[in-house]
Amino acid sequence: xxxxxxxxxxxxxxxxxxxxxxxxxxxxxxxxxxxxxxxxxxxxxxxxxxxxxxxxxxxxxxxxxxxxxxxxxxxxxxxxxxxxxxxxxxxxxxxxxxxxxxxxxxxxxxxxxxxxxxxxxxxxxxxxxxxxxxxxxxxxxxxxxxxxxxxxxxxxxxxxxxxxxxxxxxxxxxxxxxxxxxxxxxxxxxxxxxxxxxxxxxxxxxxxxxxxxxxxxxxxxxxxxxxxxxxxxxxxxxxxxxxxxxxxxxxxxxxxxxxxxxxxxxxxxxxxxxxxxxxxxxxxxxxxxxxxxxxxxxxxxxxxxxxxxxxxxxxxxxxxxxxxxxxxxxxxxxxxxxxxxxxxxxxxxxxxxxxxxxxxxxxxxxxxxxxxxxxxxxxxxxxxxxxxxxxxxxxxxxxxxxxxxxxxxxxxxxxxxxxxxxxxxxxxxxxxxxxxxx
Length: 438
Ligand code: XLS
Ligand code: NI
Ligand code: NI
Fold this sequence. Notes:
This protein has 438 residues and is of the alpha/beta class. It has two domains: 344 residues, TIM Barrel (Alpha-Beta Barrel), CATH 3.20.20.150; 57 residues, no CATH class. The protein contains 16 helices and twelve strands. An eight-stranded parallel β-barrel has the order 3-4-5-6-8-10-11-12, surrounded by four helices. The longest helix is centred in the C-terminal third of the chain and has 25 residues. It starts with 32 loop residues before the first strand and ends with a helix. The mean pLDDT is 97. It binds D-xylose and nickel (II) ion (2 copies). The site of one nickel (II) ion has 6 residues, from helix 9.
């Protein structure tokens, strides 16, 4: 393992909740078994290349504040190569199994399509060698078709076909890279797919263009042997005023309309769900109950504002609620939990990157322990099942099967009379949940 960029940091080990070492895991014991699988298998953590190795804490109001020692050269390709070494040193010291990238995080754009492809290919070779040496794998790849000024009016939904061609070239190369690196999934996040104003927008046409683009990408991916899931990552807004992939429900409707349900699932991000005025658990549940929960971007917003703050997750309630959905879904594989999260602009020590990830990892490890404990509490299951018991037999069951008419409902209403009140037991369930925090 290389020891160039984080020389003071050794491999992060599990030391348990009684240790006072803050450079250790208190809850994430990768080999501990829960509900028949190890924590490592349940949680499938990934590090996000863009936040952790590429961006240097810049925000829309000012430049970056942290200096990455792997970015010392004036040649962007040299920096990209050093970035690979830094990334694999970090990921192996942290001890997580996966990483995720955008094409432009790993390699700089060139002055032509072929030069960009060449840059990407050169870095992919280095990443592949590191993957083989360390055993770290690619959870997903994606193309950044939102930063370059040419994408100001969108990528696949751009009103100018010439821009759509550029997006196509980029997605093709990013798919090649993902397949070359054995990526388990391929993500589409449509940060500029939407509109700023309806006055200059043909929404129906743009949505159909997006469907056409995704089908072309799907066809190419399958042709070159990609067997993983294509994932759409919902987000309602930011940077675009109104984004087409608004939330889980909207994306599922779109996938159904565009005949993409066989190949696509969802990558649900906590802070995007809250930006859409949902809870994280809500958007996960919508995806899971439609059989479309593909992967998770684990992070957290801020209760005082609505932005995509991308905090590292520290909220145990949120993590436990999310892990209940994941466990009831039978797991998240071949997806995982990607820390699409960044340290704050005033966190300027390289070791802060470790503290941030250790916190996020322990939060979800603890969330997993709590979730398993809650779903095994018989009362949790019983109370929910009992609420729907009137549909388990008799006329209620017939109704569920679709054989009760509106006239039948009317006659039954008269016969049965005013229904007895039945408590939803919310406070009891909230208290029950808290008893499982440990
Ligand atoms: C931005 C998104 C982005 C995607 C990948 O808000 O979360 O980082 O995960 O393009
Ligand atoms: Ni985000
Ligand atoms: Ni994300």
